[in-house]
TrEMBL record:
The keyword Oxidoreductase applies. The lineage of its organism: Eukaryota, Metazoa, Spiralia, Lophotrochozoa, Mollusca. It comes from the Eukaryota. InterPro entries: D-isomer_2-hydroxyacid_DH, D-isomer_DH_CS, D-isomer_DH_NAD-bd, NAD(P)-bd_dom_sf. Residues 75-231 form the D-isomer specific 2-hydroxyacid dehydrogenase NAD-binding domain. This is Glyoxylate reductase/hydroxypyruvate reductase. Keywords: Oxidoreductase.
């Protein structure tokens, strides 16, 4: 602040990593009438896209092998299907919320040759055609997907969207991944779905609350992998976010156009 002694700098974090459609962000942005809010979303997209894929692999893998390593089952090769799981190749990938991260994830998954990528959003999206992704209704997405990836924003319309009715409509072999916001999932219903064979496995990077209390029943399930909201965590992404934040602040202080304003 030596360079701009006339300013006081307030660093204020608007809900870490939130989407602009998240209700808490809209509220915060409204409160900032005299402040020029900026954002750092663009850098985390590829990182989250990669993470989604990783989380999916981990979830597919977890339910069949990690437990066996921990509990000494490894080595029983007498059954040809021992530890076998599903492949992305020829599977139907269903993406709920085809915004930046949903689309980035789909682009990366395409390389694994799924039979189809379907998505559900507010309506069909032009850019989805670039990768041949097909629009589906919410019901169709639930019914037809082998892997469901949730990338939808948290809004009043999506809160608790993945509830017992939704889980009942999914294939019993589905792998359910959520990296958006914990509150789009009804966790009690997810627990029931995972323990009654309604769905095969889940991978959650986001939960309600975060972190989950250590006695939360989801943590005891062998077919549920939970990570601590780390989908955008890589050194490169974090440095890029910090740099963009600094560039936003400097431009703001100089009265120049900020590189990444919230508009
Ligand atoms: N786990 C992490 O570390 C991490 C990191 C970044 C973002 N996120 C979260 O991932 C989510 C997606 O982020 P993004 O940058 O892709 O956001 P985005 O705004 O680009 O995409 C969200 C999509 O959801 C759709 N959508 C919203 N409400 C809908 C509704 N009622 N019905 C159908 N579609 C609806 C929007 O049309 C949009 O296409 C956000 O919730 C964000 O907070 C998590």
């Amino acid at each position: 602040m030596e360079v701009f002694p006339q300013y006081t700098l307030y660093c204020y974090t608007v809900k870490y990593h939130a989407s602009l459609l998240d209700p808490e962000v809209n509220m915060e942005v409204t409160l900032m009438e005299r402040i020029h809010p900026t954002q750092i979303r663009k850098y985390r997209i590829s990182c989250v896209g990669i993470y989604q894929r990783m989380d999916m692999c981990i979830s597919m893998y977890t339910c069949r092998s990690i437990d066996s390593v921990i509990h000494g089952g490894l080595g029983r090769w007498d059954n040809a299907l021992y530890l076998s799981g599903i492949e992305i190749k020829e599977s139907v990938i269903g993406i709920a919320g085809f915004g930046r991260i949903g689309f980035a994830t789909a682009k990366r998954l395409k390389a694994f040759e799924p039979s189809k990528i379907i998505y559900w959003d507010v309506g069909p999206l032009e850019y989805a055609k670039e990768i041949g992704a097909e629009f589906a209704s919410f019901e169709e997405l639930l019914k037809n997907s082998d892997i469901i990836i949730v990338c939808v924003s948290l809004t009043d319309g999506t809160r608790g969207l993945f509830n017992k009715e939704a889980f009942k409509k999914m294939k019993p072999s589905v792998i359910f991944i959520n990296t958006s916001r914990g509150a789009v999932v009804n966790q009690d219903d997810l627990y029931t779905a995972l323990t009654t064979g309604q769905i095969l496995a889940a991978g959650l990077d986001v939960t309600t609350p975060e972190p989950l209390p250590r006695d939360n029943p989801l943590l005891s399930l062998p077919n549920c992998t939970i990570s601590p909201h780390i989908a955008s965590v890589s050194n490169k992404t974090r440095y890029a976010m910090a740099e963009l934040t600094a560039r936003n602040i400097i431009a703001g202080l100089k009265g120049e156009k900020m590189p990444a304003p919230v508009c």
